[in-house]
């Protein structure tokens, strides 16, 4: 059955796909196209580090983010491991406070949750889950960021962990340590399973905190609702069409949480394929020249930097305003990229969700939206397995020309001929050529 094989292969590739590469210069980075797993194996550590990033006043009056707390401390590292750790720790503050150095103490600050992804020189990737908040106290204070570094892609789960961290921060920093120690000693649960953490809080006693993973692992780093609340189905399809052809995409919003949630959602629309180019959900101010990159990218930039972005000498790009729900700049052919019949079917699916906005849970919304886009790929390229020629030694060779000719519809074939040239399709096929599943009755 094609669909069975499609999802077997998709699972192998996309267990790693909820968080794509992040390739800014001056931070840990890998070559475009480097792919290593964001691991989802049950039983491994929840996280590598918890760090606190605080703003320290410099001699010129500006503030610079610095790591002021790190758990656990690492000792007895080999030289290469120590250098990698130092690069990671140097990059983290930049992404915890991407807004720049112009801060001032305040009495009120709404806490926000966002995430970033760093790719190391060996292609390995780590996710930073951040909660920016104002410490408890009186008078004016500066916000600080609690950042959990993990190779596990599960935004909902880590948001709940950060809720617990924030609750303890209002009591004392000392209460955070035993909770994180208990978390670190607990095994990461399998999809659909729950792990229970015991944690003692002064005056409240021992609490049992249950952390449950979604059943569908490939959607656990995704919140499609965030995208649907800000953009019309029509615009979402324009963005999807641009992403499918691996163009340059720039998203604008003021809130870091909106940027990271929406960009993760757009990347997830490509399932079971993977965005394999520059991917920076929140671009730090000092890296705004990323938009001059001639290769494909998907980046999020705070709205305050709009004029600077528009002044950059960039090549053709799709610029999306998530605040107003509109496209500020486009190539012009977005309406024509996807075959019109399938485009209308996807619009119907998205509009059906909008008309029943209060009926579904977040997980149900994720499943419904993902299914609509998966079916698009099934219809367009689902016959790929029939066009892999297998040699006697078990290696496969994809027959691209025959694959394209097998598409009966001229409009569909026009799209497929473009899509087969993308990096994401090539990576998918490379995996398929190595993933032969013996047919029944054959060896």
From TrEMBL:
Any GO MF annotation of the entry: guanyl-nucleotide exchange factor activity
Residue ranges annotated for the UDENN domain, each copy included: 48-439
Keywords: Guanine-nucleotide releasing factor
Highest taxon in the source lineage: Eukaryota
Metal-binding found in the keyword field: no
SMART domains referenced in this protein's UniProt entry, alphabetically: dDENN, DENN, uDENN
GO CC, any one term: cytosol
InterPro entries tied to this protein: cDENN_dom (IPR001194), dDENN_dom (IPR005112), DENN_C (IPR043153), DENN_domain_containing_2 (IPR051942), Tripartite_DENN (IPR037516), uDENN_dom (IPR005113)
A Pfam family per the record: DENN
Coiled coil: none
Designated name of the protein: DEN2D protein
Source organism (scientific name): Scopus umbretta (Hammerkop)
Lineage: Eukaryota, Metazoa, Chordata, Craniata, Vertebrata
């Amino acid at each position: 059955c094609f669909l069975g094989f499609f999802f077997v292969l998709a699972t192998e590739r996309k267990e790693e796909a909820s968080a794509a590469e992040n390739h800014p210069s001056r931070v840990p980075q890998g070559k475009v196209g480097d792919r290593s797993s964001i691991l989802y194996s049950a039983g491994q550590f929840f996280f590598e580090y918890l760090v606190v990033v605080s703003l320290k006043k410099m001699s010129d009056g500006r503030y610079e983010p610095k790591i002021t707390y790190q758990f656990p401390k690492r000792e007895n590292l080999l030289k290469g491991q120590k250098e990698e750790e130092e690069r990671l720790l140097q990059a983290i503050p930049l992404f915890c406070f991407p807004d720049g150095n112009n801060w001032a103490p305040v009495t009120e600050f709404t806490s926000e949750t966002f995430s970033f992804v760093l790719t190391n020189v060996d292609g390995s990737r780590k996710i930073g889950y951040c909660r920016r908040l104002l410490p408890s106290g009186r008078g004016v204070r500066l916000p600080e960021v609690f950042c959990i570094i993990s190779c596990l892609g599960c935004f909902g789960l880590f948001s709940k962990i950060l809720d617990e961290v924030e609750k303890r921060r209002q009591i004392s920093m000392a209460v955070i340590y035993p909770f994180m120690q208990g978390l670190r000693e607990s095994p990461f649960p399998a999809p659909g399973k729950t792990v229970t953490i015991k944690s003692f809080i002064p005056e409240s006693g021992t609490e049992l905190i249950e952390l449950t993973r979604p059943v569908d692992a490939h959607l656990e780093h995704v919140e499609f609702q965030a995208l649907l609340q800000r953009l019309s189905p029509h615009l979402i399809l324009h963005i999807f069409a641009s992403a499918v052809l691996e163009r340059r995409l720039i998203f604008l919003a003021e809130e870091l949480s909106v940027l990271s949630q929406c960009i993760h959602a757009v990347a997830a629309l490509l399932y079971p394929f993977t965005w394999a180019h520059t991917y920076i959900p929140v671009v730090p101010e000092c890296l705004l020249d990323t938009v001059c990159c001639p290769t494909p990218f998907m980046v999020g930039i705070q709205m305050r930097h709009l004029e600077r972005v528009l002044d950059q000498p960039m090549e053709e790009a799709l610029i999306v305003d998530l605040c107003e729900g509109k496209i500020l700049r486009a190539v012009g052919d977005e309406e024509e990229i996807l075959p019109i019949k399938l485009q209308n079917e996807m619009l119907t699916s998205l509009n059906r969700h909008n008309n029943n906005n209060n009926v579904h849970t977040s997980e149900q919304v994720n499943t419904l939206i993902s299914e609509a886009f998966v079916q698009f790929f099934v219809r367009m390229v689902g016959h790929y397995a029939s066009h892999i020629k297998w040699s006697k030694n078990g290696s496969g060779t994809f027959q691209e020309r025959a694959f394209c000719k097998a598409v009966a519809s001229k409009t569909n074939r026009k799209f497929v001929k473009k899509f087969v040239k993308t990096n994401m399709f090539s990576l998918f096929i490379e995996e398929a050529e190595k993933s032969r599943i013996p047919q029944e009755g054959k060896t």
